[in-house]
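// run 5 | inverse folding | seed 20
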């Protein structure tokens, strides 16, 4: 997100537009917590995780009164274009601001879950997967040394992108994602087959929102008939949300932040900038939450074929 903030500030500055930053998301608009954000103010943030402007949920912004307060402060500050970085909740809020006030808005998809339509990848996804993989690689060392089965829970309440990519890149025996119903006997069969073929360890990656439950619940059900296999459970949790952003996220954030400014300069409103097939494109903002890009069946098939 900091790469995108930096790009917005510097691209606006390069175009002769005075950029302003809003602290704490929509809550900052309601509290009138705005500050100048010129090219020098964003120096040294490209490599840092999180967001230097801060973020947070704002129940008040969900009300008409809260949004009208935000619109009033934007008008007083003479802000006529707003870039909103975030997930579907943030983009819905941006859409409401534009519809209820005079402000033009452009969204930048920022969520580790990669669950927004209109872009192949969202900001934070690549970093989250690589962060999780660091832990998975370490757990693999332990699993291989002790001949164990590990169930590893990653983030993804309604989206299995992190689980799938971690499974593919981490050499997992099986992955569980919310988009596909979990067949516990099939998971057990995969594990038994892998050990029978001579594999000395197995990893099963579980998305936290899987229909079969948490990694602990899945492990208990799978292990009911695996008396001779020692298993462990690891929950990676919020460690996936922090850390230095990957090269991929730094470049994508820079591209999308710049594209958001150019969209506003072109007079665009209620659009999201995203990456599709290597190109930055604009799509209607509402597409981010009204449509859903499914987990590709071919990747799930690839996962099955390689899990040997």
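// decoded
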């Amino acid at each position: 997100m900091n790469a995108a903030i930096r790009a917005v500030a510097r691209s606006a500055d390069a175009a002769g537009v005075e950029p302003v930053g809003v602290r704490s998301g929509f809550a900052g608009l309601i509290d009138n917590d705005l500050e100048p954000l010129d090219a020098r103010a964003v120096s040294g943030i490209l490599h840092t995780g999180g967001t230097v402007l801060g973020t947070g949920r704002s129940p008040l912004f969900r009300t008409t009164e809260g949004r009208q307060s935000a619109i009033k402060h934007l008008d007083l500050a003479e802000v006529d274009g707003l870039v909103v970085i975030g997930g579907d909740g943030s983009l819905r809020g941006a859409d409401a601001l534009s519809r209820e006030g005079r402000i033009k808005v452009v969204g930048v998809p920022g969520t580790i879950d990669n669950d927004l339509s209109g872009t192949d990848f969202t900001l934070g996804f690549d970093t989250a997967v690589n962060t999780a993989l660091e832990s998975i690689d370490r757990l693999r060392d332990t699993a291989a040394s002790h001949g164990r089965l590990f169930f590893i829970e990653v983030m993804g309440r309604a989206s299995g992108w992190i689980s799938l990519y971690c499974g593919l890149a981490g050499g997992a025996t099986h992955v569980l994602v919310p988009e596909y119903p979990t067949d516990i006997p099939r998971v057990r069969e995969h594990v038994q087959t892998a050990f029978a073929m001579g594999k000395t360890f197995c990893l099963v990656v579980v998305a936290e929102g899987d229909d079969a439950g948490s990694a602990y619940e899945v492990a208990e059900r799978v292990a009911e008939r695996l008396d001779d296999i020692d298993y462990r459970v690891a929950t990676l949790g919020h460690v996936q949300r922090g850390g230095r952003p990957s090269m991929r996220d730094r470049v994508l954030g820079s591209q999308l932040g710049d594209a958001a400014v150019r969209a506003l300069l072109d007079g665009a409103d209620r659009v999201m900038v995203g990456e599709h097939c290597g190109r930055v494109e604009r799509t209607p903002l509402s597409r981010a939450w009204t449509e859903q890009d499914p987990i590709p069946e071919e990747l799930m098939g690839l996962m099955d074929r390689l899990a040997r």
